[in-house]
Structure formats: structure tokens, C-alpha cells
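User: Predict the complex.
Assistant: Input components as received:
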Amino acid sequence: MRAATIRDGEVVVEEHPDPEPGAGEVLVRVKAAGLNGADVLQRKGAYPAPPGSPQDIPGLELAGEVAGLGAGARRFREGDRVMAIVGGGGQAELATVHERQLMPVPDGVDWPAAGGLPEVFTTAHDALFTQGDLRAGDRLLVHGAAGGVGTAAVQLGAAAGAQVTATVRNPDLRDAVRELGAHDVLDPEGFEEHGPFDVVLELIGAPNVPGDVKALATGGRIVVIGIGAGFRAEVNLVALMGKRGVLRASTLRARPLEEKALTARAMERHVLPHVAGGRLRVPVAATHRLDDVAGAYERFTAGGKLGKVVLEL
Amino acid sequence: MRAATIRDGEVVVEEHPDPEPGAGEVLVRVKAAGLNGADVLQRKGAYPAPPGSPQDIPGLELAGEVAGLGAGARRFREGDRVMAIVGGGGQAELATVHERQLMPVPDGVDWPAAGGLPEVFTTAHDALFTQGDLRAGDRLLVHGAAGGVGTAAVQLGAAAGAQVTATVRNPDLRDAVRELGAHDVLDPEGFEEHGPFDVVLELIGAPNVPGDVKALATGGRIVVIGIGAGFRAEVNLVALMGKRGVLRASTLRARPLEEKALTARAMERHVLPHVAGGRLRVPVAATHRLDDVAGAYERFTAGGKLGKVVLEL
């Protein structure tokens, strides 16, 4: 099979042996695979794939057709449309995934949207609800709301009855984020004057954290899942104590199979019905063929886009 | 009545009007009142009492006899032995407390122990179990374990089946902390090499936080409730993400009546039976008469003691 491959800090296309599904695993013929921030970190050598995942093939999510079943795998049949988060190796023509990590692709969702759906919606859903305990009526702040996870979080927050405020650096994208359900879209500069917020989804990183603490409501939760702008955060503990606040940081990638499988079940129950009904969607900023994988990474790192960059295979 | 009174950064004894119990309140003739770190901050002008509490009389906890009942108060009768956390004003001959904040003093607990019990045990219980979700088998680290909250936390952690590690600066106090139930008692220097810990109770402050993050187990919780050594903490978000960790900061003092009352009910249910049974105790380092309130504050701030400094009234 051919796959995107990390070589000396670049992503190129190389030939690899076809993977074979182990017990409980499914072989997926990949049709689309979204790009994510972790792929870029991994390309720089800063974020190695977890053990058991391909070390040199990037890609944290994929969508495709079932092409084979390992021993004991029984949730899907050959030809089924499936999608999943994977620990790595998603940006390849073939990938093996444990059947408990796979989700069905709802009818009416095309391959680019399906390939860009699992990581951002699972990440946003887990961060907002499992980590952040978001409830109807809560005031939610989403930083970096025009990105992949941000667009998912704005939609999920609005769908759950939260009052959503979003920060977006690029003024050209603010109307689009408002159309996704944000009640208020701000420039990141001075956002801390617009609180208080019950939940802050931090997708940018350390430079925002002092403001996040300042803008937090009593009993509020800051959930950090993106650190592109820096990771050494200064936290004013007096302010956090006074608010009985929580700073929580998380990543899906390092979790064991059973926890990833739980997030997939939560997606099937709480998110996919809304996707099937058209109430949640995956904004796709650009698609690139595998042969143009370098172009896909260039587009991804250029920023200033709304939603996902997806590789088509 | 006479009361400890903050005047120009000192604590002196002054005459005040007797307080009168309002609806639902109980008038308590105070017998003993523990000193706490917040009193010292308040003396410096750094930590004003919450609205509705006496602004110039320190004291966050008290024990004494019921001396009068406000309209509708029916949980206690005159002469009952009671104790409570209060927003301020505990270090006085008389204090009014809402009956929902009061707890009965178990038989066999003397006045100094009762006067030094509510703040430290309520704080430690809330921090370990409500905030930190401590479970049997968890590895617990208690920083500042020889202090009031520390000695309570070590005992509560051990009683709940946690594996308790404690840091104690004064080598002379380490054996006493071990006798309270700590499995391991360390010098604070280099504590981060002794992890991982599922729950870290931070009673010292910001300087420990980078080590707390380093020593945290996957899914671990840092609960900050003391900041005497500093409040500007540096948090490595990459490390916290990799551990799916939580940094939580809290204080009892700023909470509304209903939340304080809930902590009193949790104490009655989960802690006082162990106190009555002699399995939990309040180490009292020193008692001082009200006339020697200056001496009490001096003893408290000198440090190097095991357990509480209590004012007798």
C-alpha cells in the first residue's frame, strides 16, 4: 500500500507492506483521512505515535470501507462504511483498527466529511461534556473556533443549549463561525473582558490561560486540549481558588483501547444522530489527493481556514 | 463581648456589641476557636472576610455551647455542644452561626480539639473526596502534612484506604505524621521523584506545582487549597495533557450557605463517627487564652508545629 510517510521532517508518499488485521481488528480501505495538529507535531519529531501504532505514518482519523476482518471481529461486514480515531497510520491506503474503535458513517455523509469527522467531534464532545461537564444554559467560550475542533465544539455547544462565545483570529471567518451557532464571535485580543464563562475550551494554548482564569465563572472548568501557541502556562492560584475553578488538560491519543472505545460509543449515542439529521456538519476547508500530501500539510499549517483539511485516498 | 480584633495589622482584644441571632441562626458561647492561615492573611489585609461576616474579628471556626436561638432555629437546644466553620468572627466570646452550618461535638472531644476540628477536617474531607475523588487504593500525596489540614488529610486518607505519602519540612515532626497513618514521610526537596500519585493535596503553594504535575499519575488530580509559599504557578500543559490531569483550586470560605451546609452534612455522615470512635483526632500543638491572642498568632506563624493552635475563650 501507499501511505503518507514522515521522512526527515517532511511528509512524502512511500510504499509500505499491507497491514493485516489481528484479533478483533478490521482492515479498512481508507477513502479519506483528516489532518490534525498532532500530525504536524509528529512531523517535527515532537509527538511520537503511541506504542502499537505505525511510527512513521501520520494520521489520527480515517473513514473508509471494511476490506477484511481479523479473528473474532463481528461488528461490521465487508463493504460497510466506517470511520474511527486511530493512534496513528490513518493517512494510508489501508489501516487496521480495532472494531470497538470503529463507528458507522451515517448515510448522507460523504467521504471527505467522514474522514474529517472522528477526531474533531470526538475530541470536542469528550472535552465539552466528559471533561468539562457542559450543561444547558452554561456559558461556553471556545478559543480557536474556526479550526476543526473549534467548529465541532461551537456546534455541539449550541446543540446542547449552551450560550456559545467564540474567539476567531481571522476576521473573514467570523460570520461562518456565527452561522455554526456561536452567539458571539470575538477577536482573541481582550477576550477576558467578556466573561464569566462556565466552560472554556482552550485550543490555542498557554498564552490564553491567564485570561481564561480571569474570565472563569465560579465553579468553572477550563479544558486544555490544544497548545499550538505554547505550553508553559502561568496560573494564578488565588484567582482559581476564589472561583473554585478547575484546569483540566487532556488528549485522546494516549488513551488505552477501552477508553477510546468508550468515546466511540458516546459518539454513536450522542453525536452521530445529529450528524445523520443534518444538524451537525463537518466544514471541509480543502481536500488533497495523497499524491499532493505535501500540499495538504502546507494548507493545514497556513491557518486562516474554516474547518478541516482532508486527504483523499 | 470581648473578641480578637484586627487593628493596623495586629490582633488585639477589644470590646464589641454582643451579636444577636437572626432567623435560623444560633448564638454560640464560644469555648475554643482554632487559628488558620486565612486569619494571618486577613491580619495583613490580604484576605477580607466575605460579606455578612464581621470584618475585623478573625476566626474561621469555633466550638462552644448554644446560648440562644433565633427565629425558626430548631436543630439544637440551649447548652448543646456545637461546632462550625464560619466566614469570620469565630475568635470571640459570642458568635452567631446559621443552624445548618453547625455540627454536634462528639462526646469525648474536649473544647480545644473541637475548636480546632471543623476547618481542618471539613477542608481536608472536601478537598480529598469531593474535589479530589479519592478512592481506596489511590496513592495520595499530602504536602505540608504536619499542619492542621495536613494532619487531618493524612488521617482521612489512611482511614479511606489510600496509600498516603506526606511531605514535612521539620524532621522532628516526621515520626508523629507517620503515627497519624502516613506510609511514607519525605522531605519536600525532591518529592517529585517519589510518584506517581493519583491525588496531590497542595497545602504549600505555587513552588510545588511543577513537581506535582511531574509526579502525577495518569488521570491524577492536584487539589490546591493552600498558597502560603506563593500563588503564581507554572503549569506544563503538555505534561498535564499526557496525564489527562486536573488542577483544581478551592476554598471553603467564599462558598454560599447552602454549599457550606452540605459540607457540614458530609462531615456529620462521614467524619464525625470516626472522631467519636477515636479513629480520627485533632492534634493540638498549643492553646492560648484570649488575653494572649498575640502569643497565639506568634506561635501559629512560627511554624514547625504538629497540628492546631487554638484560642480558648
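The mean pLDDT of chain B is 95.
Let me know if you want any component modeled separately.
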